[in-house]
Recover the amino acids of this structure.
């Protein structure tokens, strides 16, 4: 099959993959356009400058949490397991804000395989350039190649 990186039998617990990208204002703007999420915390610099999390002002725009989460989908769909994997579920916990200029690395690691059901359970995490976790969770995929 074209584009297949793995068959189910070639997968193993501990196998991992990742991808990185620098988050730009254009990324945030395009994500807002595609999803319709135009929350001013992402798009309005003055609003973000004044917005407070607890007592501390945020100070600048933040990326949509789902933008980082979407990078996890990219790893799963193109690298591990790659073409043929179908999302069944994903848990997400948003730990820290992502700012314009941050380098985000999405990391996926297989933590369980169910050969009878062709299910893959994977740890999913995004970290910034300082290795601070910004998103973490777990994915369940169906993979029948």
């Amino acid at each position: 099959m074209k584009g297949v990186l793995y068959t189910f039998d070639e997968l193993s617990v501990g196998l991992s993959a990742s991808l990185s990208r620098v988050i730009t204002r254009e990324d945030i703007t395009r994500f807002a356009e595609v999803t319709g999420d135009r929350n001013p915390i992402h798009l309005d610099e003055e609003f973000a400058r004044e917005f407070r999390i607890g007592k501390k002002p945020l100070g600048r725009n933040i990326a949509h949490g789902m933008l980082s989460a979407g990078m996890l989908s990219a790893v799963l769909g193109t690298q591990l397991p790659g073409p043929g994997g179908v999302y069944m579920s994903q848990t997400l916990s948003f730990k820290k804000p992502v700012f314009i200029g941050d380098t985000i690395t999405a990391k996926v690691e297989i933590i369980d395989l169910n050969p009878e059901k062709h299910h893959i359970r994977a740890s999913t995490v995004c970290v910034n350039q300082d290795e601070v976790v910004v998103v973490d969770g777990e994915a369940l995929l169906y993979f029948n190649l």
Summary: The CA atoms of residues 29 and 43 lie 7 Å apart.
